[in-house]
Amino acid sequence: MITAVLPPQPCNGLDSIDVEGWIASPGRIDLLINGDFGFDLTTNPERLWDVATMLPKFGVTGFIPTIISSTKETYEVAIKIYKNGPPDGWKGARPFGWHFEGPFLISAKKGAHNPDCLLLPDKGLAAGWSRKNGVAMVTMAP
Fold first, then answer.
1. Tell me, what's the pLDDT at 99?
2. Is the pTM of this model over 0.90?
3. Which of 45, 83, 101, 108 is a Cys-bridge partner for 78, taking CB atoms 3.0 to 4.6 Å apart?
4. Which CATH number goes with the domain that contains 102?
């Protein structure tokens, strides 16, 4: 998102910079990241901000972090990490909110999900899953 256009400024005493051969493009948006850089967000949602820090090196400026079918505690930690926000001085790609891929999946539609983590739809578990709490999307196949 462009928030301002500034007038040209001298760069190290130069009036211009030769950018021939460079590419200017909008930041990339990744709609599903289970983890990266050695971090698995399902087993360690606490690493959200570490993953987000490294994504701009690859042109990603916004993303949806994804957790596959897991424990109730994992979802609670993920929501807490997102709501607490990044650490002071943090810079990186913006997470748009969690994608909880499961746990409300039937075994016939489980794919790579651990069958021990699959549940029938549960209003109690999903009660706090809202945009306000940092949940952008939930995949279900009840």
1. 98
2. no
3. 45
4. 3.20.20.140
| End-to-end Cα, the chain, rounded Å | 37
| Residue 10 within any structural domain of the chain | no
Question: DSSP of 13-76, one letter per residue?
Answer: TBS----TT----PPEEEEEE-EETTEETTT-GGGHHHHHHHGGGGTEEEEEEEEES--HHHHH
What is the per-residue pLDDT across 113-126, written as a single tens digit (0 to 9) for each? 999 999 999 999 99
- Please name the residue that has the structure tokens 């211009």: 16
Q: Are strands 28-33 and 60-68 parallel, antiparallel or unpaired?
A: parallel
40 found inside a domain: yes
On whether residue 20 sits in a domain, the answer given is: no
Burial of 29 from C-beta contacts in 10 A (0-12 / 13-18 / 19+): middle
Q: State which residues of the chain have pLDDT below 50.
A: none
- Residue 128: which domain range? 28-141
Assign 101 to helix, strand or coil: strand
